Amino acid sequence: SSLGASPAVYRVGESVELDVSVSADAHVFCFYQQGDGGVIKLFPNRFRPHSGVSAGETLSIPGNGSFQIKTDRVGQNEQILCMASYEDIDARMPTQLKDVDLQPLPVESLEQIHGYYRGAAMTVPLRDTFVIEVSN
After folding, report:
1. Which of 10, 129, 3 is nearest to 76 (CA)?
2. Which of 102, 121, 132, 96 is nearest to 8 (CA)?
3. DSSP-derived 3-state class of residue 113
4. Domains and CATH numbers, the chain
5. Residue 7 pLDDT more than 50?
6. How does strand 58-61 pair with strand 18-21?
């Protein structure tokens, strides 16, 4: 999987756009850790509920103006974690991770999210992390 977003440095209040692509058909799961530490599930979501992404397809998050990812804390790095798997791991996640999107989840970190998905998968999901530096 590969993540592409530019620039890596965003000003406070700017909207973050992210492009995700996979080299083989896969299920993709993306989470955003805000500057205050809160973790939000970005994808799949209520606007695109299916996690499947085709090889060569570019998944744009948020895409189509359905929601916005806005940076909000100067000096606090924010992160986006995306995982790709041949399996739809979401089906085996606890309800609060599977069914809650675009609002804070009851987890402490992206590492904890990765641990849940790694534990539920038959094979370890590929992962990529994108760091967002927030400036004035």
Report:
1. 10
2. 132
3. helix
4. 2-135 (2.60.40.2550)
5. no
6. antiparallel
Q: Which H/E stretch holds residue 4? A: strand 2-4
pLDDT tens-digit series, residues 19-73 = 999 999 999 999 999 988 999 999 999 999 999 999 999 999 988 878 888 888 8
Average pLDDT over residues 98-116: 93
- pLDDT (0 to 100) of residue 77: 87
Distance, in Å, from the CA atom of 56 to the CA atom of 110, rounded to the nearest integer, reads 26
- Measured in residues, the chain has a length of 136
Q: Which of 104, 103, 105, 86 is nearest to 25 (CA)?
A: 86
20 vs 82: CA distance, rounded Å = 8
